[in-house]
Design a protein that fits this description.
The chain has 146 residues and is mainly α. The protein has three helices and two strands.
């Protein structure tokens, strides 16, 4: 579980760090492409102030990658904790046959309803957390959607 939670953000942060290091060592006018590059140059991204250079676009995309990786890890952690909590709650309340989960209803309709409610609840909670972080001025998860 820890590999799934930490591997994505660590790799994304390492990639961001390497691109920031590259951007600080290269002059602004130079290109990060290798000298023998035989493929067409990357497309120029347009922002309100003009065009991003290839290196600026790389750093911006890596910021978005870090935001996405930490967001996915947070959702995975929430899902695992919710599963542990619900399973522990049902384990105390009811007897379940061997090999079955007490928290999973046998009815397909009830199972689908619980899935939809959990999905909407987690999505709404994640959006509220993002809005709260934006209001407070904390920079996590702000670049990917702005």
């Amino acid at each position: 579980m820890f590999t799934g939670l930490l591997f994505g953000p660590i790799i994304a942060t390492a990639l961001l760090y390497s691109s920031v290091q590259l951007s600080s060592t290269l002059p602004r006018a130079s290109s990060p492409l290798p000298a023998g590059w035989l493929i067409e140059p990357p497309a120029q991204l347009v922002n309100p102030q003009g065009q991003y250079t290839a290196l600026e676009a790389l750093v911006l995309s890596r910021y978005n990658l870090v935001d996405l990786a930490t967001f996915c890890s947070t959702l995975l952690l929430f899902h695992v904790c919710a599963s542990w909590w619900i399973e522990a709650r049902y384990r105390k309340c009811a007897y379940t046959p061997e090999g079955e989960r007490g928290s999973v209803p046998r009815s397909e309709g009830l199972r689908s309803r619980n899935y939809v409610l959990f999905t909407f609840g987690v999505s709404l909670g994640a959006l509220c957390i993002r809005a709260l972080l934006e209001e407070v001025g904390y920079g996590i998860w702000q670049r990917a959607w702005s």
